[in-house]
From TrEMBL:
<feature type="coiled-coil region">
    <location>
        <begin position="3"/>
        <end position="39"/>
    </location>
</feature>
<dbReference type="InterPro" id="IPR039226">
    <property type="entry name" value="Ski3/TTC37"/>
</dbReference>
<dbReference type="GO" id="GO:0055087">
    <property type="term" value="C:Ski complex"/>
</dbReference>
<dbReference type="Pfam" id="PF13432">
    <property type="entry name" value="TPR_16"/>
</dbReference>
<dbReference type="GO" id="GO:0006401">
    <property type="term" value="P:RNA catabolic process"/>
</dbReference>
<feature type="repeat" description="TPR">
    <location>
        <begin position="562"/>
        <end position="595"/>
    </location>
</feature>
<protein>
    <submittedName>
        <fullName>TTC37 protein</fullName>
    </submittedName>
</protein>
<dbReference type="InterPro" id="IPR011990">
    <property type="entry name" value="TPR-like_helical_dom_sf"/>
</dbReference>
<dbReference type="Pfam" id="PF13174">
    <property type="entry name" value="TPR_6"/>
</dbReference>
<keyword id="KW-0175">Coiled coil</keyword>
<dbReference type="InterPro" id="IPR019734">
    <property type="entry name" value="TPR_rpt"/>
</dbReference>
<dbReference type="Pfam" id="PF14559">
    <property type="entry name" value="TPR_19"/>
</dbReference>
<keyword id="KW-0802">TPR repeat</keyword>
<dbReference type="Pfam" id="PF13181">
    <property type="entry name" value="TPR_8"/>
</dbReference>
<feature type="repeat" description="TPR">
    <location>
        <begin position="596"/>
        <end position="629"/>
    </location>
</feature>
<keyword id="KW-0677">Repeat</keyword>
<feature type="repeat" description="TPR">
    <location>
        <begin position="40"/>
        <end position="73"/>
    </location>
</feature>
Length: 669
């Protein structure tokens, strides 16, 4: 076949393809290849025809052969791209991306429009595959090409916005390079916006700041963006809210940062971050109750802020709301999820505070949980303070040997650590080795004099050591006073001050004040509440006694606060108010149905009210629970007599006289 014949055969093949006679085209091409096996056009035409005949493997082989012959010719690359773009082609996206890359290279110095079309296709392909870095780099090439061609500012603005749209999901699995390219796109889009200030520009700025807040290493850039947006849109609270949340999460608040919270609250008094910031300010000023109130309110509006939950836990811990502290630590840990980088520090702080609080709850279950919590902290084994906490948890769980082992190791490795000496003191105190406990607590105080708990335990050590140390003003009393001064929310210190003034100093008025304070701080402290009521009665101040009892009973859930219901019921009984006495004594029995004395008092109240049958049942119940209650048995007999059950009454009187021969009321009955 001559050269002329080859050209004629190729023309026939081209015409056959144009007429969709693909098999005919293949015949012409094969004839050419018999003569010229490296004929580029023949291989390209075979690729085209085979693709149309649904023979993708043959088409792919033909195009690749053509490319091998002429790697910088367009036709074969275009054909291969068309083949891979067909919907029935699977697992070819990687190959298609390579083809597009080659086409970009070939179009670069020629057809700019085709270059842009291929570039768009390549970006779309990378986006489907979630290859965000490749998306960003390729789209940037497109923008550069447009800039070189002298594109208008408005067109470039739309291109930067499109890049932001393409990369918006990349922050979920961000890598630094893609992140930087996304932030650069935002900055260019903001700079190229037409109307500044304007609604589109404002929304773009919001998205930029939101994006920046997802990059922990872009702190300076975030702060600058917030301040810049505040300057452009001074009435808008959004940038200030983001800035305030950033300051909260940073954990270090300067005076300038605190001013941002005040400014935000002036702008929007109901702003969650603003209220949280005010709560943190209160915490730093030792206004713990105000801090708890504000932080709780702020977190109801902005609850996904781990640092704020931790600040709330810290404030709750300061006022000894231990159960609530644990709940807030749990919220902080939940909001943190699986933390990395700076958030890892917050996780450790939350775990440590939770463990410390569980230890303060001081029961075996809480101690068990504290041990598990401490195991989750990073570098727990190398932190001596965490080891001391673990020792306390073992002690509360009753594992004295493990606690002692930790104590001994800490005293050897960290002899100047207050927590090590305190742990030793707690162990001695639990075993009533008061002289050794005294030495340990004095050593702890020497190293950390500002810890109320150490003074409290030293005071307790003196209280139980001997009558002499209990009565010595310079011993127990001094330590309780120091503990109360260092921690004005430590209810147990005020309770023991009450014990001292009542039992040692004989100062009922001062003792009553201390018990009242202790009970105000901890409404579950029945000992202090009861003592405050009893001393108020002894001092003839029934108003104070009743105000305490009324406050407790108003808040009490059914089946709780027995002591308060009982005290008030007895008061009503003494002051001839039997109906009120009945209601209160019934409430006391809901809390403790087996209290025989309470049943006896209830019987007395029913009797005074004239409810004889119910009074009889109450006295019988009292004597069933405690057969030694002669008065209840006698009252039951006298009520049987009143109700006309004479035989029963005689039998009951005889029952009393068998036990107590000369019990006059029974003889009389």
């Amino acid at each position: 076949m001559s050269n002329k014949e080859v050209k004629a055969a190729l023309k026939s093949a081209r015409d056959a393809i144009r007429n969709k006679e693909y098999k005919e085209a293949l015949k012409h091409c094969k004839a050419v290849l018999k003569q010229e096996k490296n004929n580029y056009n023949a291989w390209v035409f075979i690729g085209l025809a085979a693709a149309e005949l649904e023979q993708p493997d043959q088409a792919k082989g033909a195009y690749k052969k053509a490319i091998e012959l002429e790697p910088n010719q367009l036709l074969a690359w275009q054909g291969l791209a068309n083949l891979y773009e067909k919907p029935n082609q699977i697992d070819v996206k990687g190959d298609l991306a390579d083809v597009y890359q080659k086409l970009l290279e070939l179009y670069e110095s020629g057809d700019k429009q085709k270059w842009c079309d291929v570039c768009n296709k390549l970006v779309e392909l990378y986006h489907q595959e979630k290859k965000y870095l490749e998306v960003a780099e390729t789209w940037q090439k497109l923008i550069r090409m447009k800039q070189e061609e002298g594109a208008e500012k408005a067109e470039l603005h739309q291109l930067w916005k499109k890049m932001i749209q393409l990369l918006k999901d990349s922050t979920r699995n961000q890598d630094n390079k893609t992140g930087l390219l996304l932030l650069t796109a935002f900055e260019h889009a903001l700079q190229s916006a037409d109307t500044v200030p304007g609604e589109d520009h404002q929304n773009l700025y919001k998205d930029f700041i939101q994006c920046l807040s997802k990059f922990p290493h872009e702190v300076a850039r975030l702060e600058k963006a917030c301040y810049d947006m505040m300057a452009l849109y001074p009435t808008m609270s959004y940038p200030l809210e983001v800035l305030c949340l950033h300051f909260i999460q940073s954990g270090t608040l300067s005076e300038k940062d605190l001013q941002c919270f005040s400014r935000l609250l002036e702008m929007d008094a109901s702003s969650g971050p603003g209220i949280i910031g005010f709560g943190i300010k209160c915490l730093k000023e030792n206004k713990y109750k105000e801090a708890v109130k504000s932080l709780t309110e702020g977190l109801q509006k902005t609850n996904q802020c781990p640092a704020a939950w931790l600040y709330l836990a810290e404030a709750q811990m300061k006022i000894h709301e231990h159960r609530n502290t644990v709940l807030s630590c749990n919220q902080a840990l939940e909001a943190l999820g699986t933390p990395e980088g700076p958030n890892l520090r917050w996780k450790n702080l939350a775990l440590q505070l939770k463990a410390e609080t569980l230890i303060k709850i001081a029961d075996a279950d809480a101690a068990e949980e504290a041990i598990k919590v401490l195991e989750q902290t990073v570098d727990a084994s190398s932190d001596p303070v965490v080891s001391a906490l673990r020792g306390q948890a073992y002690l509360h769980k009753g594992l004295v040997d493990q606690a002692s082992k930790i104590s001994q190791e800490l005293l050897l490795s960290h002899p100047d650590l207050a927590e090590a000496h305190a742990l030793e003191g707690f162990i001695h105190y639990s075993q009533k080795n008061y002289e050794q406990a005294e030495k340990s607590f004095l050593n702890a105080i020497e190293r950390k004099a500002g810890t109320a708990e150490y003074h409290q335990y030293l005071g307790l050590t003196y209280w139980f050591m001997s009558d002499e140390t209990k009565k010595d003003k310079g011993k127990a009393l001094t330590q309780f006073l120091k503990a109360a001064k260092l921690d004005s929310y430590l209810g147990s210190a005020f309770c023991y001050l009450g014990n001292y003034y009542r039992d040692i100093a004989g100062d009922k008025s001062r003792a009553r004040g201390c018990y009242k304070k202790a009970f105000e701080l901890d409404e579950t402290d029945e000992e202090s509440g009861t003592a405050a009521v009893n001393l108020s009665v002894e001092l003839g101040d029934m108003d104070t006694a009743l105000s305490i009892l009324n406050e407790v009973t108003e808040k009490a859930r059914p089946g709780t606060a027995k002591w308060a219901w009982l005290h008030r019921g007895l008061y009503y009984l003494r002051t001839c108010q039997p109906s009120q006495a009945v209601a209160d004594l019934q409430a006391a029995l809901r809390a403790d149905p087996k209290d025989s004395n309470c049943w006896e008092s209830l019987g007395e109240a029913y009797l005074n009210r004239g409810s004889y049958a119910t009074a009889l049942k109450s006295f019988r119940k009292a004597s069933e629970l405690n057969p030694g209650l002669v008065y209840s048995i006698y009252r039951a007999a006298s009520l049987e007599q009143i109700l006309g059950k004479y035989e029963n009454a005689i039998a009951t009187y005889q029952q009393i006289l068998k036990k107590t021969e000369n019990y006059v009321p029974a003889l009389k009955g």
